[in-house]
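Hello forum,

I keep getting stuck at the same step: I have a sequence, I want structure tokens, and every attempt I make locally crashes halfway through. Rather than fight my setup again tonight, could one of you with a working pipeline run this one for me? It's a single chain of 102 residues.
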Amino acid sequence: MRERIRSDLINYQKAHSNKWNQVLHYFAFLFAFLAWIFLFINVYVTICLAVLHYLFSWIGHFYFEGNKPASFKRPWLGFYAGFTWFFMRSFELVTGRRVLPK
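Reply #2:
Ran it on my machine without issues. Output:
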């Protein structure tokens, strides 16, 4: 299982190799994370955050990366690999230690 997650993260990073796409995806998943929290507080904020999530992600893919989002073909892979990447990248930013596979 651990090797499968590592493989999925490597493939996720290959599809997001452009620096600006990575920045946009980081904020997109921040919006998605906040949307899950606001789901229990205010559904309108959740909808706005979800729209921002997809807007940032799709701009990154179509404009900067020139490819289609993985969520078009494999939505669960995009969901779990994206969130895993977001939390691991957040850990890297806070601690300064590299944890994502190369």
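The longest helix spans residues 43-65. If your local run keeps crashing, start a new thread with the error log.
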